[in-house]
Structures are given as structure tokens and as C-alpha cells.
Specification:
The protein has helices at 15-26, 42-51, 98-114, 134-145, 156-159, 173-177, 180-187, 204-209, 214-223, 226-233; strands spanning 2-11, 32-35, 56-61, 122-124, 168-170, 192-197, 238-240. It is α/β, with parallel strands linked by helices. It has one domain (2-245): TIM Barrel, CATH 3.20.20.370.
Length: 246
């Protein structure tokens, strides 16, 4: 049977984001999410995670939003002690201490574990793991904690064949999940697929901190559409799974 993971990024970004993700799981077709460990709503997300054990939850490693968990960094923060913005990394010509990234991301994973939760996998905010040499830290931690990763590399299998992942990572949820025929066409070539989504409701925090806000409402409605839910949950082509079931 083919395996379909529908993952929501940003669990814990804000309470509204967390509730949007939970509804997309409870009444929709969402199966998986990844949790941010450095936001004001992290504690709330951890509580919700414990109340919804069927939802696969990984760690959404952060390097470009908010403040780090550790206060010893020199090269990955700005003058105010916040993480440097995504724009700092976008030309792939940046210089940072990768050991700082390792220590920070390890602290984020350890914080997740401190809640008594077991992560299903790793991915990263803004796909930062795919910039420059940051993938080396990402894969090092995946091996250290024996966790699958999001396959947002063009050549992951060439980089490290020991890390578990899906055959395909799909970034366009409407294209992949429009109907059964659209996902069936993808499964003609692949046995396991992750589709990325960003469902959410809205609150003051996300409106003030993210330029990507209103479209998240559309994603919540899309993932909870009654016709789509019936089609996808009744499919005999694939199983809706989490990374823990790869």
C-alpha cells in the first residue's frame, strides 16, 4: 500500500496555528505536524500534543525566527540576540559556526523530549536545513536521534542513504491533494509521499509576526473539506500515515 503523509509546519507558532492544525487532523486529512520550540505558544502546543497522541509530531528546527534557546551563540544571532533572518542565508554565501547550529538544534530536540514526547521526524523552518552546509548538521542529528527527515533535498539519497525519508516531498498542497486523481498520478512514480501544508486560524501573534497568514485559513478549509475527507480516508490506493509508520 502506498503511504501518504500530510504534514503541517509550525505547530506551536501561536495558539491559533496550533488549533488550525488540530482541526485539520481531527476532522480533516492531516496526519502529521512539526513543532516549534522557541515560541510563546510552545508550552500550549506540548499540552495539545499529549491530548492528541494519534497525531504524528516531529521537531520543526528553527534558525530564522525568534530567539534561540541557548544564549552562547555569536554567529547565528543579530545584535538584539534574535536569530538572523532568512535573507542572511538566501545567497548561500554566509559564514556561521556550524557547531552553534548543532548545539542549538540539539537543544530544541532535547526540549521536545523534556515534555515526555517522542518526535516522529525532523524538518526545519523556512527549509533552512537545505541552505549551504546546514544539511550536515541536520543529518547528523537525524542519525544521532534515529529520526526520519523531510526529503527537501534534490540528492538526499546520495548524501546519506542511512537516513529514512519519503520517496517524494511535495510543496504544493493544492496540486497534490486536489482530488484522488491528482494524488494517484503522483503515486504512479512514488511509494511514499509527504505533502507540506500550513493550516491555521488567526490571532494577533501570527498577524504581527508572519507575512504568510490569511492563506493559512484557505489551507485549513481545504484539509477539512467534507468531500475531500471522505475520498481520501476511503481510498484503497494509499494509507494516511505519519513518519512513524514509514
Amino acid at each position: 500500500m502506498k503511504k501518504l503523509i500530510i504534514n503541517a509546519d509550525d505547530f506551536g507558532y501561536s495558539r491559533a496555528v496550533t488549533y488550525g492544525i488540530l482541526d485539520s487532523y481531527k476532522i480533516g486529512i492531516l496526519t502529521s505536524t512539526t513543532m516549534m520550540m522557541n515560541t510563546p505558544a510552545t508550552e500550549h502546543a506540548a499540552e495539545m500534543a499529549k491530548e492528541n497522541p494519534g497525531l504524528g509530531i516531529g521537531v520543526h528546527l528553527v534558525l530564522t525566527f525568534g530567539r534561540p534557546l541557548l544564549d552562547t551563540h555569536k554567529t547565528i544571532i543579530d545584535e538584539n540576540g534574535n536569530f538572523k533572518k532568512l535573507s542572511f542565508y538566501e545567497n548561500n554565501n554566509f559564514e556561521i559556526d556550524l557547531d552553534e547550529v548543532y548545539k542549538e538544534w540539539k537543544a530544541q530536540i532535547e526540549k521536545y523530549l523534556s515534555y515526555g514526547l517522542i518526535p516522529t521526524h525532523l524538518d526545519s523552518h523556512h527549509h533552512i536545513n537545505s541552505f549551504g552546509e546546514l544539511y550536515t548538521v541536520y543529518l547528523r542529528l537525524a542519525e544521532e536521534y534515529n529520526l526520519p527527515v523531510r526529503n527537501n533535498f534534490s540528492n538526499l539519497k546520495n548524501i546519506n542513504s542511512n537516513v529514512k525519508t519519503t520517496d517524494l516531498f511535495h510543496m504544493e498542497y493544492k496540486e497534490a491533494l486536489e482530488d484522488i486523481n491528482s494524488i494517484a498520478a503522483i503515486f504512479e512514480k512514488y511509494d511514499s509521499v509527504e505533502v507540506m501544508t500550513h493550516p491555521s486560524y488567526l490571532d494577533k501573534f501570527i498577524m504581527e509576526n508572519s507575512s504568510f497568514n490569511l492563506p493559512r485559513l484557505d489551507e485549513t478549509a481545504f484539509l477539512t473539506d467534507a468531500v475531500r475527507v471522505k475520498e481520501f480516508k476511503g481510498s484503497t490506493l494509499f494509507d494516511l500515515v505519519t513518519y512513524g509508520e514509514l
